[in-house]
Amino acid sequence: MIDAAFTELAPVTSTKTACALLGKSRATLYRQRNPAPPAAEPPARPIRAAHPAELGTAERAALLAILNSERFVDRSPAQVWAILLDEGVYLASVSTMYRLLAAHDQTRERRAQATHPAKKKPELLADGPNQVWTWDITKLAGPVRGVYYDLYVILDIFSRKAIHWEVHSTETGELAKAFIDHAIAANGGIAPRAIHADRGTSMTSQPVAALLANLGIDQSHSRPHVSNDNPYSEAQFKTLKYCPAYPGNFGSIQDARAFCVIFFDYYNTEHRHSGIGYHTPATVHDGTAVQIQARRAAVLEAAYTANPQRFRRRPTPPKLPTKAWINQPPATIETEEPRHNQPAA
């Protein structure tokens, strides 16, 4: 209908005015008047004439058989060319060998490749303290660029308590072995059932493996390049380095140790950790958090009794953890308490 009205109106006004009055796009009008020509068929690619000097069918088949022979199947074309040339034989150039192999889809790695099975995802459960520990090493920046100190920290995943820490100028398997020994001693001689770590050279070293084997402690490691397999240590290091008092750089290793003395005392005894119901790691580790939880509940109940109109429901303190996981199996997520394998610090 618009086209019919345009046909009547355009002769007595103008194309622009008629389009404006009828609300018709001039671009659409011009495309309708001058439709694009149909796309032309692409020209056929000319058939390449055979080069008079190229290998014949029989020669190509013979060369391919030599390249795939038991003698040369594991060698590159350049090596095959050089070996044959040393033996007084020239069959084709290296580029011709590559073109022939490419034509038969054989330019990928022709040698047998080593395959590494996927690393098993670690799954660890703790329903109390001193069952599963996790440890890691982080760098503390020194006084000048390129100078760092290594902070070793071992945590209990259930209580989040920093069992032990040490600052050293380097990272070695022997230092790691002594560090774990010192952690058990600092915990009153009580060793965990399992110790988890990533795959750093110190964590996978022979001294550490031998120590844990002698103590009967299960050794667990994160998968390569999967930081979420060690979430407790990663979260604790973030708490450390985002602490308002963290200086960023330390003037000496003694300065780093002095700071860590203050920080870890605060972390264990004053820091209310969201992952453990806002209790301190020390009280969860020694069991006194249960009494503190009861006192919290009594205070909240008294506040509710005094002013119930101020609450939408009867208040309760955040729950204490009953289980802590490293990689909780999916089948247990629906039936267990809320998972703790991604802890907030």
Task: Give an overview of the whole structure.
Among the domains are: 2-33; 57-103; 124-283, Ribonuclease H-like superfamily/Ribonuclease H (Nucleotidyltransferase, domain 5, 2-Layer Sandwich). It is of the alpha/beta class. It is built from 13 helices and seven strands.
Topology of helices and strands:
Layout: H1 2-9, H2 15-22, H3 26-33, H4 57-67, H5 77-86, H6 94-103, E1 124-126, E2 132-141, E3 148-156, E4 162-168, H7 173-186, E5 194-197, H8 206-215, E6 218-221, H9 231-241, H10 253-269, H11 281-286, H12 289-306, E7 324-326, H13 330-333
Parallel strand pairs: 2-5, 5-6
Antiparallel strand pairs: 1-7, 2-3, 3-4
Helix pairs in contact: 1-2, 7-8
List key phrases describing it:
Nucleotidyltransferase, domain 5, 13 helices, 39% helix, five-stranded mixed β-sheet, alpha/beta, 12% strand, 345 residues, two-stranded antiparallel ribbon
Summarize the structure.
With 345 residues, the chain is of the alpha/beta class.
